Each structure stands twice: as C-alpha cells, then as structure tokens.
Amino acid sequence: xxxxxxxxxxxxxxxxxxxxxxxxxxxxxxxxxxxxxxxxxxxxxxxxxxxxxxxxxxxxxxxxxxxxxxxxxxxxxxxxxxxxxxxxxxxxxxxxxxxxxxxxxxxxxxxxxxxxxxxxxxxxxxxxxxxxxxxxxxxxxxxxxxxxxxxxxxxxxxxxxxxxxxxxxxxxxxxxxxxxxxxxxxxxxxxxxxxxxxxxxxxxxxxxxxxxxxxxxxxxxxxxxxxxxxxxxxxxxxxxxxxxxxxxxxxxxxxxxxxxxxxxxxxxxxxxxxxxxxxxxxxxxxxxxxxxxxxxxxxxxxxxxxxxxxxxxxxxxxxxxxxxxxxxxxxxxxxxxxxxxxxxxxxxxxxxxxxxxxxxxxxxxxxxxxxxxxxxxxxxxxxxxxxxxxxxxxxxxxxxxxxxxxxxxxxxxxxxxxxxxxxxxxxxxxxxxxxxxxxxxxxxxxxxxxxxxxxxxxxxxxxxxxxxxxxxxxxxxxxxxxxxxxxxxxxxxxxxxxxxxxxxxxxxxxxxxxxxxxxxxxxxxxxxxxxxxxxxxxxxxxxxxxxxxxxxxxxxxxxxxxxxxxxxxxxxxxxxxxxxxxxxxxxxxxxxxxxxxxxxxxxxxxxxxxxxxxxxxxxxxxxxxxxxxxxxxxxxxxxxxxxxxxxxxxxxxxxxxxxxxxxxxxxxxxxxxxxxxxxxxxxxxxxxxxxxxxxxxxxxxxxxxxxxxxxxxxxxxxxxxxxxxxxxxxxxxxxxxxxxxxxxxxxxxxxxxxxxxxxxxxxxxxxxxxxxxxxxxxxxxxxxxxxxxxxxxxxxxxxxxxxxxxxxxxxxxxxxxxxxxxxxxxxxxxxxxxxxxxxxxxxxxxxxxxxxxxxxxxxxxxxxxxxxxxxxxxxxxxxxxxxxxxxxxxxxxxxxxxxxxxxxxxxxxxxxxxxxxxxxxxxxxxxxxxxxxxxxxxxxxxxxxxxxxxxxxxxxxxxxxxxxxxxxxxxxxxxxxxxxxxxxxxxxxxxxxxxxxxxxxxxxxxxxxxxxxxxxxxxxxxxxxxxxxxxxxxxxxxxxxxxxxxxxxxxxxxxxxxxxxxxxxxxxxxxxxxxxxxxxxxxxxxxxxxxxxxxxxxxxxxxxxxxxxxxxxxxxxxxxxxxxxxxxxxxxxxxxxxxxxxxxxxxxxxxxxxxxxxxxxxxxxxxxxxxxxxxxxxxxxxxxxxxxxxxxxxxxxxxxxxxxxxxxxxxxxxxxxxxxxxxxxxxxxxxxxxxxxxxxxxxxxxxxxxxxxxxxxxxxxxxxxxxxxxxxxxxxxxxxxxxxxxxxxxxxxxxxxxxxxxxxxxxxxxxxxxxxxxxxxxxxxxxxxxxxxxxxxxxxxxxxxxxxxxxxxxxxxxxxxxxxxxxxxxxxxxxxxxxxxxxxxxxxxxxxxxxxxxxxxxxxxxxxxxxxxxxxxxxxxxxxxxxxxxxxxxxxxxxxxxxxxxxxxxxxxxxxxxxxxxxxxxxxx
Length: 1469
Known about the structure:
The structure is a single chain. By secondary structure, the protein is α+β, with helices and mostly antiparallel strands. The protein folds into 7 domains: 5-173, Chloramphenicol acetyltransferase-like domain (Chloramphenicol Acetyltransferase); 216-340 and 370-440, Chloramphenicol Acetyltransferase (2-Layer Sandwich), CATH 3.30.559.30; 455-634, ANL, N-terminal domain (Rossmann fold); 848-936, ANL, C-terminal domain (GMP Synthetase, Chain A, domain 3); 953-1027, Non-ribosomal Peptide Synthetase Peptidyl Carrier Protein, Chain A, CATH 1.10.1200; 1041-1211, 2-Layer Sandwich (Chloramphenicol Acetyltransferase), CATH 3.30.559.10; 1213-1375 and 1391-1457, 2-Layer Sandwich (Chloramphenicol Acetyltransferase), CATH 3.30.559. Helices cover 36% and strands 23% of the residues. β27 and β28 form a beta hairpin. Its cofactor is pantetheine 4'-phosphate. Keywords: Phosphopantetheine, Phosphoprotein. It comes from Chryseobacterium angstadtii. One of its GO terms (biological process) is amino acid activation for nonribosomal peptide biosynthetic process.
C-alpha cells in the first residue's frame, strides 16, 4: 500500500540523511523489581502481533515506495546481561545510547523496531526500545507501552492476554488517501499558502553552512518542580489557557526577544487523530505544523498566550495538511528552517502503569541528530512527579554555555510566570538578578578607583607636571622643529594669552591649520584659555567647512597663510601673528566639566553634526590608554591622523600627558606612502595609531613593522589578512573601538594570532557597555543587540542640536541620573566579558527572511585570493532587495570564480547577486568608506553574476531529456530551471535519481538533488562524480588488451603442472521441478553474448599475458546432458568435472551439465577464477534466473553498460602500480616465516584438498555478533582479529602475516559486472601484550591501510611465506541455499567435501541468518587431517569461549590459553 502523507514526510527527509538516525525514536524503560523473562517474551510477541504498524516494512517498486506487512516471526526480543559488570548501570546506559544511534535502513530492513531486555542487577532491568518514526509516533509508543504492560500482567496473572485491539493503521491509510483527493485538501492548501505568502524571520541562522552538513545534537535537561508547575497550571485555569498554550506563549516571547524578532514561527506536532479509533491505533499519524505569531510589545504575556491559543484554534482546522507539501508549495524544498527552526512538543502520555511487582519509569532517548536549531520536549508522564523538559540542541547553533543560558532563562520565566503574566512584554526580563549582576560585572571589573583629588584635574594639569619634571625633553617634533616640553608650554601659552585678551567671550575657536608641531601647540593653547577647539581640515570641501562654522557659531578662525581657502562670516587670524608676540600668560582655571573640543562627524542628513566633549571625558580616555595599551615616557608616538578625525586627539595628547614624545607626520609626507615609510624608518617610533587602510597601503609597498613597534588600529574593521601581516613582525597589535560620542575609544583588545577581528575587547576605564533590545532590556551573553555606551567618556551631546542629543543620549535604565549613548552598532558579549562587534545596525539587513550581517559576507570575500578589500551593500531592484559586492583587487580576478568560491563558503542567501570590481572605494570626509554612496550608485550592469558555462554540453542535453521525461513536460528546460518549480515532487525525485544513476553511472543521492535543484547545479554534481574515480568509460581500441594484475597472478599460478584446477569454481545443485532445457541453454547463451569476459581467452604474446575476446558468433555453448545410475558413477563424473583442466588459451571457460542420477536431476556448474570471482557467481545466477523467466515471457535483457576490458583499461589509467610494488616490498621486508601448523613435504606438487565444516551454534554465533557490537566493530573484523590472536598464542610468534581478500569493486559501475575483481592482499600485524580491544584496533587500522592498495605484487612471497588465507563469504550463495526464483523449478546447493586448493589453508567464514559456519579447505599433501581438525576445532572452542565472556573478553581472553583450561591445545604442530 502507499505511504501516508505523514510517512512521506518522514521518508523523504530520512532519504536526505540516509546514514543518520534522525528519525530514531524510543526510550529506556527502567524497571525496578523482578521480571519473568519468559512471560515478558510472550507479552512482547503478542504486542507485535496486535499492531500492524510494527510489522510494517518498506520497499521501492517501480519508482514508488510502498508499505508491506511482514507476516513472519517478529524480531526476537534481545537479552543483554550487565549484572556482572563493575558498574552495570553505567554500562547499560552507555550501551542503550550507543545502540539508539544505529540508523535503520528504511528500504532494506525487515524490522523497523528493536526491543532489548537488559539486566543491570538482580531486580533492576531496562527495556530498551527504538523504532523508526515512519512506523509510529509518540502517541503510538505510549499505547505500545500501556499494552505491553497489560499483556505482561495478564499473562502473569491469567496465563493469557485478555484484550485484543481491532485497530489497524491500514484504516488510517485509506482515510489519508481519501483526504488527498478531497476538497478539504485543496482548502487546506490554500489556507497555508496565504498564511505564509511572506515568510517569518529566520532565527538562529547565524552558524549555518551551505553544505547542510551532518547534524549533531545533544540534550540538556531541565527539571521543573511539581509545586512550581502546579502554580503554572493554576494560572492557566484562572485565565483559561492550557499549559501547552502557556509554554508556547513563553517560548514565543523568549525567542522573539532574544533574536529581536516580532514575527516568528515554531514547529509544533499535530496529533492528527480525529476519531476515537485513530486515538487507539498505533502508527504514524502525527505531522508538524508551523505556528506563526506576530508579537506586540504592548501586549501582556497573558494576551500573547491568548493570541497564541486563538491562532492555534484557527490553524487547527487545517492541521492535516502535511509539512512536506507545504514546503513544496512554497518552493522551499530543502529549507524547512525558513518556516521554523525551533520545535516544541508537549508530551502528556500515560506512562504511569507498571509491570506487575515493579516500579516502571519511561526515560526518552535522544538520537543526537536534531536538524532544527532547537527542539523542546515538555514531558509530563505522571500527575504527581516533577516535570522534565528536554532541550535537544543542534551543536551548529548552541554550545554548552549558550544552551545552559537558554535553559536558565526559560526556567526563570516558568518559575516567575505568576509575577510576569500581566506585565507588558516590553517590560519583562527573563534575566535573573544573578544574570544581570554578571553582565554588569563585565563593566565593573575594569573600573579603577581614581586617585585622591584627581576628580578636579584635567589633561592640562598633568601636562604641566611633565613640563615641570622634564622641561628639556622633546615633547613634539616634526620634519622642521623639535619642541621641548618647556617650549610647547610657552608657545601654547601665547595662544591662550591672545585668546583671553582679544576674544574673551568666544566659547569655541575654529582651527584651519596644516599638520605641524605648532598646530598641536595651538590646540593646547585653546584648551589653556578654557575654550573648545573646532578642527577644520583643509582637505574638506569649502561648503562643508562653511556649514561647520555656521552651525557652531564660532566667532574666530585661526588659520595660516599657506592655506588659500577663503571662508566667510567669521573673523580670521593667522597663527604666525599670534605667535609673534611675547606676552606673559596668567594661568586660567579650566574645570573638568568645561568643553575641550567640538568635532564634526558625518550625519545621516548629509550635514555633519558637532560632538561636544568635556575635559573629564578626555582625561579618562587618555589615562586609560596610557595604562592599556600603554604609553610611557620612553615612547615616541608617530601621528598620522587628520585632526578633524577624533582619534588624532589620542595621538596628540596621550604622549604629552605621559611624558612621551609626539612626532607629527606632515601633510606632504602622508600624501606619499613611500615618503611615509622612509620617515617611519628614520624616526623609529614605538607607537603608531591609524586606520586599517593606512597600514594596508604601507604593507602593499613592502613596509614591515619594526619588532619594537606597538600598533593601534581602529576607525574601521580590521581583517584577518591584515592581522596576520602585522603580527609577523610588530611588537603588539591592538584593536580599538569607539564612537566619537563616547570620546574616541571605548574598548580595546590586544590581538594575538587567531583573535577574531570582530572582537573589540573590554571596556576602558570608567566605561560601561550595554547590549540592549529595542526596549532597553538587557540581553544576555551571545545575544545580538544594540550597543549602548555609558560612563565618563560620554559626550555632552550634539552641539546646538538638543533634539538629536535627546534622541541619542538616553536615560541609563540601570544607573539613576546617568545617560547612555546608542551607538548604532550591533554586537554581543562573549563569555569572557568581551564585546563582539557585528557591524552597524544599518548594515544588518534581511534577505528572503534571513537576517544577514554584511560584514560577515565581507570577511569571507576578503579571504579569497587577490581580493584586497570588499564592501557589500543592499540595493533595491524591481522592488526586491539584492546584495551587491564591490571588490578592490590587487590582481585580475574572475568574478564568476569569486561567486563559485562564495557558494562554497556561505549559505545561498548570503551570496551577492551582483559582484563588481572597483578601483577605489568612495570615502566620506573622515576617510571612511561611503557605503551610502555605493548603495545609491547605478550598477555598472544589471546582469547578475552568472556561472561558468557547463563543460559538457552533451551531458546537459541528456539531463534535460531525463527531466522532461520524469516531469512529463514538453516545455524546453533551461539551465537555471528548478526541478521543483517545474512540478517535481518527492516521489519524482526517486524516479529522477534512478534514471540519472543508470544513464551516467553515478551514485546521485536524494540529498544532492534537494541541495542542487536547478539543472546547472545538478550538472556540476554529475561532472564532479564523473571526474572522480568512479566513472569508467568505454576503452579505446587496443591491439593488446592487458589482463589485470589479479588475472596475471592466476595465469602464472596455472602454468604450474596440475595447478589450474585449483582455480576452478565449481557448484553442484539438486533440481526440484521441471527445467526447460532449451530455455535454460538460450538464457546462458544470451549471458555469454552480453558479457565479453565469458568469451575471453588468455594468450602469452611478447612476454605479456593479454585478453583475447572472441565474438559471440564464434562461440558455441551447449548444455551437457548425462545420466548415471549409481553413486560411484555419479561421484566419478562430479570429481572429473571439478578437476577439469581448462585450456585458458582456446576453450570457453564455462561449462554446465544436467546430470540425471537415478530419478533425480542435478546441475553442475564450472568456470575458472581467471574470469569469475565469488560475487560474479551470484550475479550470474541472478541474471540466469531473470533471463530464464523473461524469455518465458518473451522479453530480452539489454547489454551491460561497460565490459570487463573497459574496467581493465580504466584500472591501468587510474592505478599507480609502481607505488603499489614499493608498498608491498616494504610491507613484507624482514618477515621471518615459520609455519603455524606442521607441514608435510610432498614428493610432488599436488593441489587436491579436503573441506572441513564446523558450524557454530546459534548461541555462539549470536554471542560473537553481540561482542562485535559491544566492541564497536564488525563480526568480520572480530573473527579476523580472533584468528590472529589465536595464531599468536599457539605459536608464540609476535609478527604474524596471513592473506585475505578484498572485493575490489569500489567503482560503482562494476558492482553488477561479471569478472574477476577480487584482490589478494596481505595482513601483517605485530602484537605485544595488548588487551583484546587494543589488538582489534591494531588489526582494524592495518586492514584499512592495506585495502587501499592493489593485489600483492610479490607473488613469490605469497607462495613461499604465507600459508593461511582468511575470507568471509557472502552468504547469498552458501550452505543449503535454495534458489527458488526460476519459473517451474528450484535449485538446492550441494555441499562439497573435496576441493582443489589453490592455497595451503583457507578459512572461510560463512554467516547465515541464524548461525556462522567455518569452512576450512586445505591441501591434503601439505597437512594431515588430524592436524587440521585439531587446529580448527580448538579455534572454534576459542570462539565459543570469547562469545561467552562477552564484556569480559577484553581482559580474560588469555585465560583460554592457560594450562588449566580443559581444552588441550598442545596438539602436534
């Protein structure tokens, strides 16, 4: 039957993640009390029988997946006993969690459930249960739990199950099918299309990667005390809401607040059981529905809960519509997180029942594969117990700190919901007092107590102290002058005297001067006069300067003659005239609250705004910087920044306050970077402060910082490349951050290798940072918000602009009487109390519902080779926002290549639609990049970035044809067309994959189709696969077709007299039924005609063995028909067939005989290993069955896509045989051979062998399988290790070498091809005194290493120094295997007792469904029968011993070999 809509959703998402247990659900059920194992098993069997959902399995059939009901025995109830372990509970817990993570294979597994009864102690058990979600949901597991307990208790008390449940999932399947074609379905579809015509904001999208990498999740648990939870319930009763509604309201509030979103959705489970019968039926009914809410900060929490309840009621009528269809309708495909990436499930299941005489507790398990950012499960299983809330978090989005913080906040809301319920959302805080104190401590830890009396000091006071202490020391120098502290004091005093005597009433003095030592003296003089200076940069446009003068109402301008700018409306005086007069200056009192400067910065209106800074703020900054990063008397500070940019103030006055020397670089020098470099080399400064662009410019010309240079970098975002270049040679590098309005810098961060450029460090002295939301609520660590700054550095406001001051400088909600400044930047605290700067709030944009930081894209662009810098802006084109990137490159770059690289780094929605190169970025007057101008700029072209042309036009056309066929459309397919937008849906994906894989010989997965839905992207995926090693093309014409190394080795071995039959592959079958001999012969001829390898002979030409492929017309195959009466004749024919010596050069290497023995019929099959391997045998029989039956139905099979000679050619093109030879020579070097078993010395070579079969019973086989699971390995590797351990202990050898084989079928196209691909490899392991697990690990690593290489090239080493070959046979064609698929007859394999042995000793491990067999074949001439029998049986006893030890095998395996062991292992070697 068809899959239901909920099952389809589950199925296709599982197909996207085929090897991940994303839909494993289940629990560990703790049982305290005695359990009757036999009764429990009966109850379990009854429970499986009662529910068709558990017996469901799924198979793909003609491009459609269908559900079937398994009619056989249920999966056995497994039993594991940990009671003997030292810590049985921990062992059991670890076992269950590990087993829970083993994924089901939905399309191959017969059982999609598993139950294990685990004993932890005498009366302490666990029932471990795991199911694939496709067969049941949480409600169904609850029903299962109740019914299993009921069954158990009934059988225990009444000897029989009392209740039956006539509720089958098939009934829901019929109901679901009717819904699909109903008007209700169309109505629901319309509702959801309208509800999500626009998408909500995506939250938690910060850490996503384009490749949808494997999802890893973990679980954090919160226990809510019953008394707190009861208060929650009582509040709900009072205000008419359920706990489910209450939790939803809390979550919408919390995640909206934490992510600054007022429009978000949460995925919630929909029960979808709308009848009484469905509520009693086990199966998958549940779907997931996106609940979308718009939040209003003015509403109370109660109003939000009520609105949520109403929206739920509205959505409820349309809940049956499946999420998968919704995603398809909205064309979101593999982007479910654009609807929601938080899910919430409230589980109030009845788990209060108990197995008779026990206390039973259900504990859900996590599959650790959560795809959403966060899945929250509120679990209320008992009305009297505490409530458990599980937070399953995706580790792409949460780390330990952030999930603990999230859980703590939600706990605070739950516990305090009564107090918060009637508050408006904008006033509610989810932070506890402890959380708030922690955030405040990030500021307070850097506040230092001021020195006594310093509150009344200004920078001028500290400068004067330096004048007194070091009057003759150089204070300021430039290219012309060196001024001592005394001289600076004198010159600045002249300026002050002039201003006080000639312009006593002027509060602010405008300054228009070139860069020089005297310019700094002038600014100092203005300060001494108790006035503020307003710097005017001579490089600024005249109209901007004129605006500043008008806005500031300055009455005096100090200028100099060389500057020819003429400004009107203000009195001017030349600096030379002021300094020419020597007057005695009487010191005036300057107070900390006085204004020290007014600096104009860019404004959003286009006109600059003046920021007024007081002396107290300036002194706080200078003192803090002098301490960290540190400016000391011995320093020389090289100043490069224009004095109209506020960071220059630090350069001018920190040295003068600290007793250091300031060197003023001149305007002419700074215009020429080479001159700047020369001057830096000459001056040898110890500190330089500049913007990143300044340092980039110097570095590009070959400058390297001095090893004693401290660099302060700020004013713009530094990038990683610049960091690494500077750190190579400089002494220290500091990242500086701060807006003009908080006095230059407000935080600093010393940058080390690996420091993020976004880390702007910790607040400076007496400065407070706050990360707040729109309502000035504190946001916690790692939450993005607006950066506000308070403290001593705060400006007085905007000069002559009170309205703007009131808007930007707001009351500090956390410190009464103080203000804070809204920076317009966004950032977050990290766990170390550092601020992570994430750009301007106006650089944070939304594209397709995703919140994007433009700086994040720029950072990735800047890592691409030859991109020097980048700027990304948003431009509206035809009503839609598009990302536009401008690149500054230091070499020619391919735009399409940049685009492709970004696609590999970023989610698709963060890849710019348009990318252009630019010579230079436009700058604002303050030399910052003018993003506004770039955003408004006309695009050089309106064509978006296009990808390269597809390299293989033929592939494109073939893929387009497949698309048209699958989509059943006649419309032309374009390169950019999207499969899903053209009508493709999940079921058609399966059809598409099958067609593509067959056509192109690739392994395209469903996940790749969903992630690459457009034709171009899918072509790229196919090209990548074909360009890899997986594609085998048709070989060109070759006169000589080389054999493969494996064939060459077989050919060489067969040249020895009597050796060739040892490479025969013989099978004997008993026939039941009637064989159509003509039809069978016709089918075999068709297989021979279709497969060149069956028509191949082998010749030696010019000392090279080559393949000779015969045409099908020249090959005649005929079934041999024979009849015998007695056993002796029969054995004679069989032995003759086995020992037949093929002529490899002339003869068809395939024979078949129909042999009548008395009244019974047999079929004998013989071929040679030089053309066949074990897998080929199975493939041949499958083809024979198919053709025999299809010829009967008048259908003919097509030829295989490639032939064995194509593989041989491809093999030599892709294999480094020289490297292979070197490896095996090194691998076998210095190996000392000694036979493990006593060997005879035959007079002549013989290859006759015997076969000894040792079955391991079901208990031993299961024990070994369980031990392999416990040791996290495969049964094959465990058996291999156990053989090596056995050999080590019986021989005393520590260096052991045996042979084994690998299928050699790694290329996808040879998986179903006839031929000899198997390769013989050696396994050499050197043992010490390790534990079993350590030896297993050593063997595993060695095995994985050698399988990377090809056939052993040193054939003589194998022949002379290796006796034992270990193989694990595919059980498909093994003991007692019945081939019952032929129309009209069946075959039963006949075990053989004798064989021709190509190896001295071969151990073949054959795994049947129920038990394992050891088949030992050995050369009779080399070993006596009793030696082999003793060895083999003792090895089997060792395996039995290991299987019984289970968990104790790790350390106790050696006891087997001690003398007190009852098994005598001292047999004749």
